[in-house]
Design a protein that fits this description.
Elements (H helix, E strand, L loop, with lengths): L4 H11 L5 E3 L6 E3 H5 L22 E3 H4 L5 E2 L5 E2 L5 E3 L4 H16 L64
Antiparallel strand pairs: 1-2, 3-6, 4-5
Length: 172
Amino acid sequence: MRISHTEWLILIFSQGGIQGTVESPLKGEFRLQSDHLVCFELPLPEIYYISKHIYFSWLAIPERLANGNPLAVSSAGSYRRPELTVINIAADQAKLQNRFQFIFEAMGQIGTDPTTLIDCSEVLPVPPPLPASSIPHFPAGKTNNDVEQACAETPFPTLPTQPGPQTAVPQV
């Protein structure tokens, strides 16, 4: 029996605690375990190891990854960890927007042969710019105390919390 993407999402929400998901910070939302693990110093299945000096998170993205060159491949075809400098993009919207395309392109190619993929980026609309008054912030009801710190050497910046009742994702 095949189920649609929407039916799959409803199944996830209705049953809860499904293998491959972890608790999300927002009520009514789910988070894939792989997305959660990629923020921490854990190995990804047989691709390469994310060490405390080379890790992905919204707080610190390796500079080379953010510039579109996430990994170096040796002549033997095995991945090696290049020397990277970490950039802080959690509180820098302009830097995040500038690097977003490269970050997700690189993460989307982990474990695949990029030459076999179809580039659909031209059909994606360019998002409207944020208002000048917009600043990075936590959703209502969340603070720095709710951050799962991935790396002690790179503290998460202090951000304001959006006012109002705790943010929740409405049920579909």
